[in-house]
Design a protein that fits this description.
The protein is α/β, with parallel strands linked by helices. The chain has eleven helices and ten strands. About 45% of the residues lie in helices and about 15% in strands. It binds D-glutamic acid.
Length: about 270
């Protein structure tokens, strides 16, 4: 048993989609969450820039004594996983891409899978590689969606928001044209605007939540190492963001369903 917290990071609010799934699946686990809002969006950055930010985030969490790392950011998983693994051979690390690719391959019937993700995730080709390893016949149609993270970070998450609705429709169009039956929400921010995505893709497409998919993989990894927390306890919850604390707390609390204000601190990285 290991009662130290799990470290979780994202560029901002997106990783809270993994947090919500973690709290539902393993309420006894403590966690420290870092939303690097000062440097969001990550999705328009280059691989070298992303490596610097990933290292910074891991250092911040390691300094606070985490037992494992959940990279709740597709962009960092796609571009910086090798760097994080090489730097931290002693730390169990789970990303979001392998688990989400696995969930998509299990869900699809037609083998036609859509991917909505940031430009940096799409450019990395990480999802195509992960999906092909599992099912070489699967066809992936990807859409880079650069307008979505800034809208979410600004708190514009309602499906009634005209700019959000138009952007989601624009990005969903090539996926629908390719007749996909499954769409990977390949950016952890997107489940926060799931209602807008659902409206754009219609009722019959299966949506895969990459943040939620990663939680099962993380818990299995901890279990294999005998590092799960004490299941009789309620885990501690601590949030940090590096800019815009008010919006982070408002949008985050609405998404998580509890007031995270007293648990959230503004930090400099
Ligand atoms: N939520 C992150 C992801 O899963 C990062 C999005 C961004 O900052 O562009 O890719």
């Amino acid at each position: 048993m290991d009662d130290r917290p799990i470290g979780i990071f994202d560029s901002g609010l997106g990783g809270l989609t993994a947090v919500r799934a973690l709290v539902a699946a393993a309420p006894w686990e403590s966690f420290i969450y870092l939303g690097d809002t000062a440097h969001a969006p990550y999705g328009d950055r280059t691989p070298p820039e992303l490596a610097v930010l990933a290292r910074q985030n891991v250092r911040f969490l390691r300094e606070r004594g985490v037992k494992a790392l959940l990279v709740a950011c597709n962009t960092s998983t796609a571009n910086s996983m090798q760097v994080m693994l090489a730097d931290n051979p002693d730390l169990p690390i789970t990303g979001v891409i392998e688990p989400a690719a696995g969930a998509a391959v299990s869900a699809t019937e037609s083998g036609r899978i859509g991917l909505m993700a940031t430009a940096a995730t799409v450019a990395s080709g990480a999802y195509e590689r992960a999906i092909r390893r599992l099912d070489p016949r699967a066809a992936v149609t990807a859409a880079a969606c650069p307008k979505l993270v800034p809208l979410v970070e600004a708190g514009r998450v309602s499906p009634e928001d005209p700019e959000l609705a138009a952007a989601v429709e624009e990005y969903a169009a090539p996926l629908l044209a390719a007749a996909v039956d499954t769409v990977i929400l390949g950016c952890t921010h997107y489940p926060i605007i799931r209602a807008a995505v659902r409206r754009a893709v219609g009722p019959d497409v299966t949506l895969i939540d990459s943040g939620a998919a990663s939680v099962g993989a993380l818990l299995r990894l901890l279990e294999r190492r005998g590092a799960l927390g004490d299941t009789a306890k309620t885990g501690g919850r601590r949030f940090y963001c590096s800019a815009g604390r008010d919006t982070f707390v408002d949008v985050g609390s609405a998404f998580l369903g509890w007031d995270m204000s007293a648990q959230t601190e503004l930090t400099t990285l």
